[in-house]
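Sample pair:
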Amino acid sequence: MNEIIFSYNKTRCHALKVESLLGGESYIGEVEGWEIYQIDPHALFDQFGFVAIRK
């Protein structure tokens, strides 16, 4: 599976698993050994706007 499904602000969200971050992402938290980042914290909330990187 290339994504992690988690709950954020009472919404079901998806984070794409990546090897590295591009920069500018905002740390959200950790799920099962993966750090979750929001891609653009200034954009409107998007349940698909997240990436996950192995901790």
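The two ends are 17 Å apart (CA to CA).
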